[in-house]
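User: tokens in, sequence out, please.
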């Protein structure tokens, strides 16, 4: 079996992420959405988002993070600084977590 071939890009990974996030729909895009749109692994998205956040700040824009939430009890991870999906809810210990979503705002 051969490895999947990533789509051909005309820009850098972070440039492609920025373009995808700038045209993101209202609820934003999750790391899974971004990984399939840009052609990188879901685990790599968080690292690229951290760098992209700094680049956007220099342009007068910001990366808005719509927090992850627990499906079972509704707990919102609004104070979380990391871009990855939490492993478990601190309130009910459920592992059914809606991932955070991202978008670019001015």
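Assistant: Sequence out:
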């Amino acid at each position: 079996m051969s490895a999947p071939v990533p789509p051909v890009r005309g820009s850098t990974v972070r440039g492609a992420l920025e373009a995808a996030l700038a045209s993101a729909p209202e609820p934003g895009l999750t790391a899974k959405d971004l990984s399939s749109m840009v052609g990188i692994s879901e685990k790599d998205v968080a690292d690229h988002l951290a760098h992209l956040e700094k680049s956007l700040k220099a342009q007068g824009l910001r990366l808005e993070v719509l927090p992850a939430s627990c499906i079972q009890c509704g707990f919102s991870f609004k104070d979380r600084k990391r871009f990855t999906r939490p492993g478990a809810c601190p309130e009910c210990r459920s592992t059914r977590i809606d991932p955070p979503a991202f978008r670019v705002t001015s």
